[in-house]
User: What shape does this take?
Amino acid sequence: MTMNQDVIIARIIAASKDIFACEKAIVTLKDIYHSAIRQYLIKNGDPRAHCGSLSPEKPEYEGVIKYTKPHYRALMKKKRELYNAHRRHLRATQALLKYQSKKTDE
Assistant: This one.
């Protein structure tokens, strides 16, 4: 299937809008995730004084990891969406360059 230049440009614009929306949402989701971590640590105590930085491998942090898992998953899902939007943008840009090079060869 061959696409004309307008369709390809529309794909680039749509991917650009998706990238912008995802980046904006990621900032919000990071704030929510970090806020959930702070809430848990304030409510249940902060083991960082004895255990170092937060790590899923450390059993001391099992509670905070479990508590923030939905927020973390939402953040990771949005990051995957951002990656996919970047890929769509790249592919559409490559398609436009290929289309334009074919037009100049004719």
User: Anything to note?
Assistant: The chain is about 85% helix and 0% strand.
